[in-house]
Amino acid sequence: MAAEHGTEYAVIGAGVAGLTATIELALRGAEVTVYTDTSAAPPASEAAPAVFTPYPGGDPARFQRWTEHAHQTLADLADHEPRSGVEMRELREYFYQRPQRPAWLDELLGTRPIRPIPKPFVEATSSIRAHIDMLTYLPWLRSMAERAGVEFVEQRIASFDQAFRFGHRVILNCAGVGAARLAADALVKPMHGQVVHTRNDIGLTYSLHDDAAGPAGQVAYIFVIDDRLVLGGTFDAGRSDQGTERTAIDGIIQRCRALLRADGHPRWEELGAEGSELRVMAGVRPTRGAAGAFEETRVELQPFGHGRAVVHCYGHGRSGASISWSTAADAVELAMGGE
User: Fold this and answer.
1) Which end of the chain is more exposed for a tag (fewer CB within 10 A), N or C?
2) Cis check: omega of the bond before 337, within 30 degrees of 0
C-alpha cells in the first residue's frame, strides 16, 4: 500500500547498487521512487570496467552466499539478456604473491592453472567470469526500472527525515560515497581510480589481471569489453575528485603492456598505441572499512519508529557490479519484512 504523500519505498542513489535494489523492489510489486543527486560526482560504476571480482568483507559465510548468488544471476543475464551488456569470458590472473582464496571459489569459477607460469609470477590461473559493459549495463538497468513504473527524481536528499516527510515509509540508502554524510558513517571513504578505453586493435579475446604486488605496487588489468579494451588502473584511497592525469594513464599502459608480454601475446607492444585511445575516465568508488579494509559492505535495517525504517546498502568498494544483485536481494528482504 502506497504512503499518503508518496510511494511507500524510496531509494537514494542510482548507481549499480541503487538500481539493482530498485529493480528487486519493483519485481516484488513495490511502488518506488529513486532520488538522484545530479550535483554529485557521477557514480564510479559509470566509469569502471566490471569483471566479476568479488572481494571478501568481514563475514566469510555471507561472502560465499553473496558470491554464489551474484555469479549465477550474472551468468543468467549473459545467457538470456543480450542487451544487458553482460557476457561470460575468460579471465587470466597472474600473481606475484601466492593468493589465499577459498576452495569453493575456485570450484564455483572453474579455476584452472596456467602452465608454464611466466616469470616473475608465482601462480597463474584461468577462469570464466562475467564481463559487464557498464556503459550499456547501467542504462539497461534504468530502463528495466522505468518499464516497471519506477519514478526517478533529480533531487539531493539532505537527510532521512526529509525523505520521510515526502511520505515514504521505507528508505533504501544506496548513496555510495554520499552514505558517509547521510548515515554519519566514518568508515565510508572515497577511492579514486583511472582507466583508459582503447580500440581492440590487437585481437585480444580474453582478459588479464595481476595482483598489484609487482615492482610498481599498482594493479594492471586489461578487460575485453565488447569491441574495446579497458586498461587499468589506479587506486587512490581518500581521493574524491574526477580528475585524470596523463602520467597516470601512461603508467597504466606501460604496466598493461608488460602484463600482456608476460602472457605471451605477440602484439603486446601495440597495446594502447597512438590513435587507438578512445576515452580516459575516472571514477570514485565508495569503500567502507577500517584502515586497510575496503569492502565491509553494510546491509542493515535501522528502525526509525512509527513504521518507518532505513535499510542501508552501501560500501561495496571494488565489488559493486560483482555483488550488487546479492546485496540488493538482502536489502529488499529487510525492507519488505522489517519495521
Assistant:
1) N
2) no
Name the region of 46 (left: φ>0; alpha: ψ -120 to 50; beta: rest).
alpha
CA angle 146, 151, 154 (to 5 degrees): 115
pTM above 0.85, yes or no: yes
What phi, psi does 320 have (nearest 5°)?
-55, -55
Calculate mean pLDDT across residues 176-195: 93
Rounded CA-CA distance 101/334 in Å is 30
Domain coordinates of the chain in residue numbers? Answer: 9-337
Mean pLDDT across 9-14: 97
CB proximity list for 193: less than 8 A, separation 6 or greater: 44, 47, 48, 232, 233, 234, 235, 236, 282, 283, 284, 285
Q: What share of the chain is helix, strand, coil (3-state, %, to 5)?
A: 35, 30, 35
CATH code for 9-337? Answer: 3.40.50.720
For residue 178 the three cell numbers come to 554520499
